[in-house]
Design a protein that fits this description.
Blueprint lengths: L2 E2 H8 L2 E4 L4 E2 L1 E3 L8 E5 L2 H4 L9 E4 L12 E4 L3 H12 L8 E2 L4 E2 L4 E2 L4 E2 L4 E2 L4 E2 L4 E2 L4 E2 L4 E2 L4 E2 L4 E2 L4 E2 L4 E2 L4 E4 L4 E2 L5 H7 L13 E2 L6 E3 L4 E2 L4 E3 L6 E3 L4 E2 L4 E2 L4 E2 L4 E2 L4 E2 L4 E2 L4 E2 L4 E2 L4 E2 L4 E2 L4 E2 L8 E3 L4 E2 H34 L1
Parallel strand pairs: 4-5, 5-6, 6-7, 8-11, 9-12, 10-13, 11-14, 12-15, 13-16, 14-17, 15-18, 16-19, 17-20, 18-21, 19-24, 20-25, 21-26, 24-27, 25-28, 26-29, 27-30, 28-31, 29-32, 30-33, 31-34, 32-35, 33-36, 34-37, 35-38, 37-39
Antiparallel strand pairs: 1-3, 2-7, 22-23, 39-40
Length: 363
C-alpha cells in the first residue's frame, strides 16, 4: 500500500524538499529504484547510480542538490541508518499469517490465547501455554506446555519454544530458532580427561575408557521484552536455575547460548557467536561474528568483541577485545604488526648469524 512522501517524512522526522504527494510503496538501491520506490542514496557514491534507476524521490545526505540529481523530491535526515531502520520497519509487511486460528492448528484446550492473535497451519500449542495479545505464529511453529509469551510476539515458521519458557513482550524469532533445548551437561563416573587436562594444563594423565551420563536440564529460560532471535539461533535451558536473556537483546542467526548463561540488556550478538555455560555477560555487550566466550566467565558491560574473538578469561567492563586468546584491540594490532614483521626479522637475523660466523672463521 502506497503512502505519500510527506507521510513518510513525518514518520521519519525528516526534512522534505520538493513534491510531498509522490506515492511511495517500497525502498530500493538507487540504480534499481522504480517510480514508486524511495531510493536510498545517503552518500554521494550511492547517488551516482540514481541515473540508472527511475526514482522520483530519495533519502539524501545533508547539502545534496536533489534537483541536479534529476529528482522531484528528497528527504534529509540527521542519521541516515537510523532513518533506514524506521523506514524498513514501516514498509515491511512481515510474514503473511491469516487472522484468527487456522483450522489445521492444534491448540490445547487449557492454553490461553490473547486477543487478535493469528495462528497459522500446523502450529502446536501445548497444555497451559499462555500467548499474549496480537501474537503472530507462523506455520509449523510450536509452543510447549506451560510456556508464556508476551504481547505482540512474532514466531516465524518452524520456531520451537520449549516447556516452561518465559518470554516478554514484542519477542521476534526468525525461522528455526529454538528456545529451551537441553544444555550440554554430561559427567563421567570418574574425572574425565577434560577435567584432568584443565587441572594439569594439558596433561590428561592415565587415559581410561568412560561413558557420559546426562545431567538433565531442570531450569527454564527467561527472556525480557523486545528481544529478537535470528534463524536457527539456540538458547539452552538452565540446569537448575534459568538461563536469562535481558531486555532489548538482538541475537543473530546460528548463535548459541548455553545452559545457565546470563546475558544483560541490549546486547548485540552477530552470527555464529557462542557463549558457553554459566558465563555472565553484562549490558550492551557487542559480539562480532564467530565470537566465542568460554564457560564460567564474566564479561563486563559495554565490552566489544571483534569478529572471531575468543574469550578465555574474564573481561573488565568497557574493553574492546580482539584475537585468540582475546586481548585489548590496541595490543592485538601491535601483535599482528609484529607477526607480519617476523619473517623479515628472521631473515635479517639469519644473515647476521652467517656474517658473525664468517667473521669468526676469519680470525
Amino acid at each position: 500500500m502506497a503512502e505519500r512522501l510527506s507521510e513518510i517524512a513525518a514518520a521519519l522526522d525528516a526534512r522534505l524538499e520538493g513534491d510531498g504527494t509522490i506515492p511511495v510503496s517500497g525502498a530500493a538501491e538507487p540504480g534499481e529504484a522504480g517510480p514508486a520506490d524511495l531510493a536510498l542514496a545517503m552518500q554521494p557514491a550511492y547517488a551516482e547510480r540514481l541515473s540508472q534507476g527511475r526514482a522520483r524521490a530519495a533519502i539524501l545526505w545533508p547539502g545534496a542538490d536533489w534537483r541536479a540529481l534529476g529528482l522531484e523530491a528528497a528527504l534529509f535526515v540527521d542519521r541516515p541508518r537510523l532513518a533506514m531502520a524506521h523506514l524498513t520497519r514501516r514498509l515491511d509487511p512481515g510474514p503473511e499469517i491469516a487472522p484468527g486460528r487456522h483450522p489445521m492448528a492444534v491448540v490445547d484446550d487449557s492454553a490461553e490465547i490473547g486477543a487478535d492473535a493469528a495462528i497459522g497451519p500446523f502450529v502446536v500449542i501445548g497444555r497451559g501455554a499462555r500467548i499474549g495479545a496480537r501474537a503472530r505464529i507462523a506455520a509449523h511453529a510450536s509452543v510447549a506446555e506451560d510456556a508464556v509469551i508476551g504481547d505482540d510476539a512474532l514466531l516465524s515458521a518452524g520456531v520451537r519454544i520449549g516447556a516452561r519458557v518465559r518470554i516478554g513482550h514484542r519477542f521476534v524469532a526468525q525461522p528455526g530458532a529454538v528456545v529451551g533445548s537441553d544444555g550440554l551437561s554430561f559427567v563421567t563416573p570418574e574425572k574425565s580427561g577434560v577435567e584432568r587436562a584443565r587441572e594439569n594444563l594439558g596433561d590428561q594423565g592415565e587415559i581410561t575408557a568412560q561413558g557420559w551420563t546426562r545431567i538433565h536440564s531442570l531450569g527454564g529460560v527467561e527472556i525480557g521484552d523486545d528481544v529478537e532471535l535470528g534463524a536457527n539461533a539456540c538458547i539452552d535451558r538452565g540446569t537448575i536455575r534459568a538461563t536469562r536473556i535481558g531486555r532489548g537483546c538482538k541475537i543473530d542467526n546460528l548463535c548459541h547460548l548455553a545452559h545457565n548463561v546470563v546475558l544483560g540488556a541490549d546486547c548485540l550478538l552477530a552470527g555464529q557467536t557462542g557463549i558457553a555455560g554459566s558465563t555472565v555477560v553484562g549490558d550492551r555487550v557487542v559480539c562480532g561474528g564467530q565470537s566465542g566466550i568460554a564457560d564460567n566467565l564474566t564479561v563486563g558491560s559495554d565490552v566489544i568483541l571483534g569478529g572471531g574473538t575468543k574469550v578465555v578469561s574474564t573481561v573488565p567492563a568497557g574493553r574492546v577485545m580482539m584475537g585468540y586468546p582475546a586481548v585489548r584491540m590496541d595490543q592485538h594490532v601491535d601483535m599482528y604488526k609484529a607477526l607480519r614483521r617476523l619473517p623479515r626479522v628472521l631473515r635479517d637475523l639469519g644473515t647476521r648469524q652467517k656474517q658473525v660466523s664468517k667473521d669468526a672463521e676469519g680470525q
